[in-house]
Amino acid sequence: MKRGCGWIVVFLLLTGCKYAAHPETAYDRKEDGSFTHYATGFDVLERDGYRIVRVFNPWQNSRGVTFSYVLVNGSAEVPDSLDHLQVIRVPVKRAITLSTTHVAMLHQLGAGSSIVGASGTGFIYAPALRSRIDSGMITDVGYDQGLNYETIVRLDPDVLFMYGVEGSERAVSEKLTELGIPVVFCGDYLEPYPLGKAEWIRFFSMFYGLEKQADRFFSGIDSSYRAMCDMVHGTAERPLVMTGLPWKDTWYVAGGKSYAAKLINDAGGDYLWRENRSAQAIPLDLESVYARAVEAQIWINPGAATSLEELIRFEERFADLPVLKKGMVFNNNRRLTPSGGNDYWESGSVRPDLVIADLIRVFHPELLEDHAFIYYRQLK
Predict the structure, then answer these.
(1) pTM of the model
(2) Whether the predicted pLDDT of 12 surpasses 60
(3) Looking at domain 26-224, which of 3.40.720.10, 3.10.310.70, 3.40.1360.10, 3.40.50.1980 is its CATH number?
């Protein structure tokens, strides 16, 4: 059991069966025909002898973009009518991942040994996978436009999981397909709800025949996360929370409907830009953000900062902010690799129940006095 998880188990036991894990059948197709409960970026069509997995709008500002993948068991035949779609033979034995989030999903499923290549191996945090990297069992395949196609072809993966930011990766995907590499786009990072992002573990499980394991795992995460939400529900005082740090004179503030904003709300905080209706980052000038920042009682996720002094060196006026004077600045960079990889973006994506526990400890420490931070730390 990971450090910091014990109190969650105790809490669930004390609250009785109200938050007990769902049975395995809890994640069957719902009455409205949909496959997922929180995730909006993928769906599954069950067919006789195969599945069609559909991924929707897998990069920012994409509209009406759908990729369909046919998952076929072993050497079973595929209908001629599906020849135009990418066919993946499952269970997958060899995989390449271009995101540490996907690495975390496979690692959590117990399928980490299938990873033969990854983008930016220096950013992978999981000790078991670092050992495989050090021993040469996982090869770095490059990043973005610098992908090493020769290495990818040599690794001969059954599937390459990739993500898109603005659609430019589509050309990369087409080139890989021409080289005979089965490519699957994933849009998990665009899910605005923490449980929606975590539910993508069910997506990855279908490539390995590990659906029951994924359902059991996600059921526990679902229950734990909702238990945390109920813990802070109705709290009389909700601290005002700001996030982020400027980048080249522009402060990309998380939208009021974003992943970060929903985590803050679920953990019992009031986000300073909660009235905003966007799920994406909002570019604002430093002056307008600073004018709101004087109201903040807690500041989280200030870039790569590791101390209050760093923040003041970055912008002298920060020294006058009440939130910094009181030392109420917390960053999600407690677990880093020597190269700067952050486990918050790795295992934290699949464990939102642990992330929200950290945030409740920040916003309402009296509720979780014995909780030891996992991803966060208070800057000094």
Answers:
(1) 0.90
(2) no
(3) 3.40.50.1980
